[in-house]
Amino acid sequence: MISDLEYQFRILVTLNNNMINFPDGSFRYTDSYNLNDLHATMQSRGCGMDKSRLRVLLEKTHDRKLIDKKEGKEQNQVNSKGEFKINTEGRNFIRGRMDLN
């Protein structure tokens, strides 16, 4: 079983790539992801999970101050329930994790 920490690392790596992959094989570049875009991208890369678990892990990652969250009028897509973007602390976490391997 994959730990929450490993999934949080996968979330950070996906956010850091700045590219949304869609189920039809198309893609677009972005600086922030909503839940559906992140879910689709992680599924297309073979590292996905169900949306409810992804939502919880995004909140935990946000609580750890590794990602930023935009809500309400700040977001680009008004119908989503938040947009997420990796921040400097998240990038440093990835670098630190890569140095351990």
Describe this structure in words.
The protein has a three-stranded antiparallel β-sheet. A two-stranded antiparallel ribbon has the order 1-2. The protein has helices at about 5-15, 35-45, 50-65, 90-100; strands at about 20, 25-30, 35, 65-70, 85. The protein contains four helices and five strands; from the N terminus they run αβββααββα. About 50% of the residues lie in helices and about 15% in strands. It is globular, with a radius of gyration of 13 Å. The model has no long low-confidence stretch (mean pLDDT about 85). It has a single domain, classed as Orthogonal Bundle (Arc Repressor Mutant, subunit A), CATH 1.10.10. α1 packs across α3 (about 50-65) and α1 packs across α4 (about 90-100). It is of the alpha+beta class and about 100 residues long.
Topology:
Elements: H1 4-17, E1 19-21, E2 27-29, E3 33-34, H2 35-44, H3 51-63, E4 67-70, E5 83-86, H4 88-100
Antiparallel strand pairs: 1-2, 3-5, 4-5
Helix pairs in contact: 1-3, 1-4
